[in-house]
Design a protein that fits this description.
mainly alpha; 2 domains; two-stranded parallel ribbon; 2 strands
Length: 239
């Protein structure tokens, strides 16, 4: 996410007016999700068109660059389109304090959507780099009670499912929200009948108990080699 101001999107009311519909992406009802997915596809198509137009303004400009008014208008059109789409709206952040950023609930929503409905997320809005960036930023500050509870839920969801690209980054979040509630969830996952949940939850608990151990790819791979009876199911690429 970059710190650039987007007119009209830097307050909670404006964010909600533009993106409140996105909460239906995590609805239990498939029909409700389908409506939200269609709206997201249309929003992303408009954003891509705005990006293409902005690039065209520059491509057809003279050697001195596009006219300032044309450049500004094209950029404003892109900002407006991006503010209504995920994850594009999350590329911008005006407030340096993440806790005061009105887009924070939608950053958490984007990650929760990936955790609950990974195939739909992959098909409609996959951006591994955005996922990684959001996880790392969410793990760097103290959150209010509501946000902290959502992050505990996220860690629990992630350790219980098949591994996906960048899931290892959630150790950062676990360390940031460590406490009895999270450890209770992880212990339950470690003792569950699901092999992957047992393996992943035990890894996170080990790193919580040993903060001196870095959450590196090498540490993760070593844990898998020493504890997994077979390679865990994976989707996507990278770690």
């Amino acid at each position: 996410m970059t710190k650039r101001t987007v007119p009209g999107v830097d307050d909670a009311r404006a964010w909600n007016e533009r993106l409140d519909w996105a909460y239906h992406l995590i609805a239990a009802d498939p029909a409700e999700r389908a409506v939200a997915l269609d709206r997201l596809d249309r929003a992303r198509a408009k954003t891509e068109a705005a990006i293409a137009h902005y690039n065209e303004v520059w491509r057809t400009a003279s050697r001195f660059g596009p006219h300032p008014r044309k450049r500004k208008a094209a950029r404003q059109a892109f900002d407006e389109a991006a503010s209504r789409s995920l994850p594009e709206a999350l590329w911008t952040r005006h407030d340096a304090d993440l806790r005061r950023w009105p887009g924070l609930p939608y950053a958490v929503l984007y990650l929760e959507w990936e955790a609950r409905y990974p195939q739909q997320w992959t098909r409609h809005a996959k951006m591994w780099g955005v996922k990684e960036s959001l996880i790392r930023q969410l793990a760097t500050v103290d959150h209010d009670t509501g946000t902290r509870a959502k992050l505990v839920d996220l860690v629990d969801l992630v350790v219980r499912r098949s591994y996906r690209c960048k899931d290892r980054e959630y150790v950062r979040v676990a360390r940031a929200v460590d406490g009895p509630d999270l450890r209770g969830r992880l212990t339950a996952a470690r003792d569950s009948p699901a092999p992957w949940a047992r393996l992943h939850a035990a890894y996170v608990l080990r790193l919580l108990d040993h903060p001196e151990i870095p959450n590196t790819r090498h540490v993760w791979k070593t844990w898998l080699n020493e504890n997994a009876p077979a390679p865990p199911p994976r989707q996507g690429s990278g770690a």
